[in-house]
């Protein structure tokens, strides 16, 4: 069942005291390049550097006091690990974080800095899930999925809710697509609070499971996802996919060179640090300029947690 307008509004009120209302930036030069008016919602300026703080806070706030006393657990290679750790710390809740052994050390250090207790696992989804299940069994902590949890999805949608409050006449909102939490949450906000506005996803061509899922009507997966957009290597889930199927009419796939070019352009012209995943929806806009010509476009810049020692340009 698709969440209601009231669900979206209540999530926005709930998370507001715990997150930044991030700025929206524009650029005449980028508008000229795109042939459209583009409004960038800067979730790279969010607490812990990504939109995922919103979903993590909303999910923990929906737990009972008894559940909170036992802690929360998730598995994540990076941004949601940091988000849940910081959200839990803000609410005096223990956070158990399962991270693959090959997760970037900069992200592991950040999780520790936010008070998350890391358990390393083999770098496969099965291994991550197994470790998380073991921690739940041993501690009684509540498992919170990074993207396939309704309260997480509603929390992620609050970025687009804020964007539409300040720019209610947007015609399209573009987001990256990884696990599906951001695009599903965005689509809910756009559906209820946009005026003749649609949500479109951007996805790496080498990790195009969501694109294929929309075509086939069932959740598809990737055997490998060798994309620079490391935040988008995950698959859709059974909670977010029905929302995406109903409310997201299109996903545009972009190749690695297009992602890197878009990322470089945003660094150069907006003078802000974004991670590769954030560049994907902008790359989609650049790729299909004619589709968006003369429209008012919102783009969720999902995060800025980039490893400065391994920049792609």
Automatic annotation (TrEMBL):
Domain Tryptophan synthase beta chain-like PALP: 17-303
Protein name: Threonine dehydratase
One of the Pfam families matching this protein, by short name: PALP
Top-level taxon: Bacteria
CDD domains tied to this protein: Thr-dehyd (cd01562)
The UniProt record lists the keyword Lyase: yes
GO terms (BP aspect): D-serine biosynthetic process
Cofactor: pyridoxal 5'-phosphate
Keywords (A to Z) from UniProt: Lyase, Pyridoxal phosphate
Sequence similarity: Belongs to the serine/threonine dehydratase family.
Any one Gene Ontology molecular-function term assigned to this protein's record: L-serine ammonia-lyase activity
């Amino acid at each position: 069942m698709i969440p209601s307008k009231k669900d979206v509004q209540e999530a926005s009120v709930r998370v507001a005291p715990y997150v930044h209302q991030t700025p929206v930036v524009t650029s005449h030069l980028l508008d000229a390049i795109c042939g459209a008016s583009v409004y960038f919602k800067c979730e790279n300026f969010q607490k812990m550097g990504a939109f995922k703080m919103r979903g993590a806070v909303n999910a923990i706030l929906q737990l009972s006091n008894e559940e909170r006393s036992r802690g929360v657990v998730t598995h994540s290679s990076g941004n949601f690990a940091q988000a849940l750790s910081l959200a839990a710390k803000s609410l005096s809740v223990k956070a158990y974080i399962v991270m693959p052994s090959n997760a970037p050390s900069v992200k592991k250090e950040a999780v520790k800095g936010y008070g998350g207790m890391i358990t390393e696992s083999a770098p496969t989804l099965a291994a991550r899930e197994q470790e998380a299940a073991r921690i739940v069994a041993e501690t009684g902590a509540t498992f919170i999925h990074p993207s396939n949890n309704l309260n997480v999805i509603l929390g992620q949608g609050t970025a687009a809710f804020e964007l539409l409050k300040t720019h209610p006449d947007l015609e399209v909102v573009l987001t990256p697509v990884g696990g599906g939490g951001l695009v599903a949450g965005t689509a809910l906000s756009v559906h209820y609070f946009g005026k003749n506005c649609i949500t479109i996803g951007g996805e790496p061509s080498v990790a195009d499971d969501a694109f294929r899922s929309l075509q086939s009507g069932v959740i598809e997966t990737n055997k490998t996802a060798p994309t620079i957009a490391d935040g988008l290597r995950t698959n859709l889930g059974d909670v977010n996919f029905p929302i995406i199927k109903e409310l997201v009419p299109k996903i545009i796939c972009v190749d690695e060179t297009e992602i890197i070019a878009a990322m470089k352009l945003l660094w150069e012209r907006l003078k802000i640090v974004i991670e590769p995943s954030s560049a994907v929806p902008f790359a989609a806009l650049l790729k299909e300029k004619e589709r968006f010509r003369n429209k008012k476009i919102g783009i969720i810049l999902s995060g800025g947690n980039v490893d400065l020692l391994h920049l792609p340009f």
